[in-house]
Structure formats: structure tokens, C-alpha cells
Specification:
Pfam families: HGTP_anticodon, tRNA-synt_2b, tRNA_edit. It is found in: Cytoplasm. One of its GO terms (molecular function) is proline-tRNA ligase activity. It is an enzyme of class 6 (ligase). It is a single chain. The protein contains 15 helices and 31 strands. The chain is α+β, with helices and mostly antiparallel strands. The protein folds into three domains: about 280 residues, Bira Bifunctional Protein, Domain 2 (BirA Bifunctional Protein, domain 2, 2-Layer Sandwich), CATH 3.30.930; about 130 residues, YbaK protein, CATH 3.90.960; about 100 residues, Rossmann fold (3-Layer(aba) Sandwich), CATH 3.40.50.800. Helix 2 packs antiparallel against helix 5 and helix 2 crosses helix 11. It is globular, with a radius of gyration of 29 Å. The protein starts with 20 loop residues before the first helix and ends with a helix.
Amino acid sequence: MRASNLYAPTLRNTPAEAEIVSHQLMYRAGMIRKVAGGMYTFLPLGWRVIRKIEQIIREEMDAAGGQEVCMPILQPSELWEESGRWAAYGDEMMRIKDRHSRDFCLGPTHEEMITDLVRDEVRSYKQLPLMLYQIQDKFRDERRPRFGLMRSREFIMKDLYSFDKDVEGMNESYRKMYDAYTKIFTRMGLEFRPVEADNGAIGGGHSHEFTVLADAGESNIAYCTSCDYAASDEKAELKPLDIPAEEELPLEKVSTPGTNTIESLCEYLHVSADQTIKAVAYQTDKDELVLAFVRGDHEVNEVKVINQIEGALDLRMADEDAIRAAGGCPGFMGPIGLKKGTHVLVDATVMKMHNAVTGANEADAHFRQVNPERDFDRGAVVVADLRMVSEGDPCPHCGAPLKMTRGIEAGQVFTLGTKYSQAMGAVFLDENGKEQPLVMGCYGIGVGRTMAAAIEQNNDEQGIIWPRAIAPFEVVIVAVNAKKDDQLAYAEGVYEECRQAGMDVLLDDRRERAGVKFKDCDLIGYPVRVVIGPKAVDEGVIEVKVRRTGEVYTFHREEYLSKVQELLKTL
């Protein structure tokens, strides 16, 4: 490929709307252009990266036993109604009507479609296990699309679905996909961690996110310093903290005027936050009131809260009328004295506290010397792990301190069990001729998101630093002065030699100043730059620069090819 024919309009200035590095650099490097909020056109350089990512994914999916299919993007509402998700999925689903007023959606995911496909064809255990995948556009009407490809409304995803005859088979398919994902992100040259995660709207049981480590990541990850435990902050398990025993003092109600925050309460009673019990009130999508209680220095994990309420899909902050109807008082809530039937959730660490302070459910009043095991109605409260992880918390597996880092979710693997097959009647005949529901798994990789994550992890002040496996071109040959026939001819010869050697190579034959070309090389991030200038023509000396390290080498014509090949192996 010649740069003079390449459509790659680079920019020197950063677009005002681009908030994070990957968005800025993809725009400046001529890889994407915005069409509308959350919608982008891939230009040739960007599309080459996408295709390389897809190729690695395809190779590993095929090696693990996956078979590629292509399902429609447009999905009929009837399938989603069968699974119960048409009404439940929420405003992110892009819904449309055809000319006959029939309801459809632009697929945000394909569980219903793939289950419908398989239920009509798979009838015997002899046809299992089965793994089908596609790489295709998905659509989600994000409330606030932002960060370029990181949170867009139209995006490319690889989604594979596994079908097995039993849980053991599903777990084996899950292991295969976990291993395949590990190979995929390793081959891409990315630093990543598989972390335990929540399944969210997909449903099901076990799940891992494959998270590319990057400061700009929107995922918080807790990981152990001594064992291999890692989890998203939404999923991280926390055991009750060890709290030293104390002599239990009698429960006492005290006046606490104006102390409707933990900070003001601590100041008024001269106590520390870890001696208080904090309340957070929510309402579910079904308007059920949920009161969650954690220690005053801890934060409530809303994902853990919603997982405790059967059938709940969403939470919002509760209104005052709902709180008062349950016997609570905004700003002064506590678990003691609430009306029966209220969802009262108490973090397990709270139950270990002694002589604590909590709201008395009346204005300007608190209880002190609260001992939850003694004072809470154990028949009316649900005790669970409700709090958000923080750095230094003990690992649930080995007890060592947890550390926190940030990352970008690029892929996720789920076990679904029979959630969709039972709802949609996807059954097979087992060895005894008895009907059984198919046992499923679901495995996704955001292709464009992976591209953005790679840039977030690999960049400097000059631009992108692509890992070799997914770079738009591995090597760029730069003719310093393409207006000089001898330099251009020499560069063309080197280009042809590299191409014949199997390298993915670009010849920068533009009649631009050398400085412009070098800046574009660094901005776009080609792993290796080969410079053909006067020394090459006159002395046979070729300059080679490695983008990642900035190291510059000089090689003679007879050795440069093998040296470039050696350098590529290290990238």
C-alpha cells in the first residue's frame, strides 16, 4: 500500500468533543469520523485495525470449536416477549415498527435469536455440545454516548453462544472460552485481567470480565496481592470485618438536632464514622422500597442490593413519602421500628458492630449503644454482603490486602444455564429419550472497544503505540524526499523486499516534508519505521526506528531485512 493513495486525513489539533486519549488519537490519526452522537465511520486505517482484531478472534473461536454464523440485526418483538425481556430491557433498546405496525428492535444482543435458531434444529443430545458465534453490529440507545468507541450507540461485537446437555458440559464450554479469551488478548499484546463480574441484564450465573488495564478505564478492579483473585468493584466479595468484642451497653435514644449526615452526626456525638450505621433508601422499578444499611465509613454497592431483591431490575433513590410510609424518617433512618414487610438489608459487617449509632426513625433523634445482634429484628432483616470494596480490604480467598486499579471491559463470559431455553422451549432428548432444556453460555468481545482500550494502554505524547498484532501496518517505509527519483526508487525496492518477506508494510511516498511524515508515523503508531534518505542511496545505510522504545538503529542494506524481522518478533 502506498501512502499517496491512502485515505488517512490526519489532524494536528485535538477535536473539542474528544474527552479521552483513544477518542482523540483515533480522530487525529485519521481512523474514525463522527456521523452522529455515538455513531462513527471507520476510515481505512481504523478498519484495518478492526479487521486484525476480528481475525485473531475468529482464529481462536474456531480453534475452540466455534462455528461462525450471521444473524439478522433486526429482531421481532415476539422472541423478546417469549424470554420476558421486551418490556424489561429498558430504554437502551432501539425499537422500531415496520409498515404493518409490527414491533422490532435493532439487536442489542442475540440470546433470543440464537435460542430460536437452535430450538428448531437441535433435537438430540448427540448434536451437543454446540458453539455458534458471529461478529456483527449491535445497537444500544445509550443515554449519554461518550468517549468515542468506548460508549457508542452502534458497535461491533463478537458474541458466541454455547449449548450443552448439562451443567458439566456448560462449565467445560465456559472453560474453553475463558482460555480462548486469554489467548486472544495475549495475542493482541494487551495487559489484561480476567475479573469476576456481575451478569447484569443478560442474567445467568457465573461471569468474568476481561479487563484491559488502563487509567482511563471506567471499571474499578479489586485484585489480591498474594493470590490470583480479581473482581470488579460491583462483584467483589467481602467477608464481614473482624471487630473486637465490647461490653454491650443499654440501648439509648438521644436527641441529635440537625444531624442528617454522617459527618454532622459524628461531630455532634464525638464518634468516628466506623461507629455509625448509615442508611440508603431506594425504590425498585416496581416501586418497592428497599432500605440498605452499611457502616458509616462504607459505601453501598447497588449491584449487590438489587441482587437481593427478586425480580428487581433497576434502583432509584427513594422519595420521602415512600420512606415515611414505611415508618422511616429521611436523614434519621435506622433498622429499628420499621413497618413489617419493608425490604430491610443489613451489611454483614454491621451485624458485628457493638455500641453503634443509628437513626431512630424520627426527626433529630438517633439510637446509640446499638448492638445489631441484640437489637435488630432478625426475622425482618436480610443480612448480606452489601458494601463496596475499597483498597486494603481483605481478600475473600486468602485474606491478603486487596489493591484497586482501573480497567476497560473488553470482553465478558457468562454462564446462562437454562434461563433462555426454558423460557423459549429450547429442549432436546437426552440419552433416555426425555426432554431437557439446553444449558447455555454467552461470550462477548467488543471489537471497537478493544481497539480503543489498546490505545488507552499504548500511547505517548506523540500518538499511538500499536502492539504489532493489531497495528494497521507493521512497518512503514519512509522516503525522506520522494521528489528525488533515486530515493523513491530505493524506498520502493525496500518496500518490495519487505512485502515479499511477508511483512504488512506501507510505503510513505508522499511528496511531503520529512518532518510531516515522521510526525504522522508517530501519531498513527506503526511499530517499525524504516527511513530511506541520502545515506541509504549513497552508502547503503538504512535507519530503523522502533516506535515503542524510541530506539534508532542503522543497518546496511544486506542485513536490514533480517534485523527488522528480529525487531518485529519482540513487539
